[in-house]
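Hello again, I could really use a second opinion on something today. I've been staring at a protein lately and its backbone has me curious. You're getting the sequence in one-letter code plus the fold written as tokens. I'd be grateful if you could look everything over and explain what you see. No rush at all, and the record is pasted right below:
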Amino acid sequence: MIIKKRKNKPDVEIIVLTWNKIEINKNFLKKLYKNTLIDFGLILIDNNSNDGTDVFLREFSKNKNNITLVLNDKNEGCINGRNQGWLISSSFEHKPKYILFIDNDQIVGEGWLQQHLNVLKEGYDIVGVEAWQVSSRLLPIHHNTKPNEPFSYVGCGGMLICREVIENIGLFDSNYNPSYFEDPDFVFRAYNAGYKIGWNFKSKIKHIGTTNISNDLEKQKRFMKSLKYFRKKWENKKIPFIKQKYLKLFD
């Protein structure tokens, strides 16, 4: 259910999901509003929290004209929740040029969004903050730390996307719902469609690494389910091999 809609006309629409962990959500929003120095739209989607997060979000959004608040009556999962945010953004009369997905356990530093946009405008259609290499068996095997390392995809958390990319190739494959492997799948599709993928290796987004998955067994089951589908979809197909030039704006 959409509780309220934004009234501003931003260039960037930020989409964030919440599910419990109220203190994490409070800290995320505090830093987001303190350290984002340009206008933005914010779609907050709560996946049926039961710890007071929904009440907090109602109160927090009251006097902010850039927030669209959505309170789901069930947990739609991470991937379907993100797709829901995109559909809501697309339904507005004013459609921002850029969509940004960020997780509520990613904390932003001062000027983070302008810096992220600056990287995108170096000639990319998608820019992420975490780059990964994928093996021939379609497993993420290396989390890149050096700018000269080739990569296969960038993660969804902190991913900034030109709207036209999603309009042309679609968003996340819901067969991966609730989580895992939706981001390499999306990047592989974008790459094969000719779009340019960038990595902001000096991003001002810090991942503190919490999770809403209740236990390791559940996490493993979700991972293996999505991996099986990912392998079936991408076996015997070319895996992106992306080498990014060192960006002059980081000198």
Summary: The two ends are 46 Å apart (CA to CA). The longest strand covers residues 12-18. The CA atoms of residues 124 and 154 lie 13 Å apart.
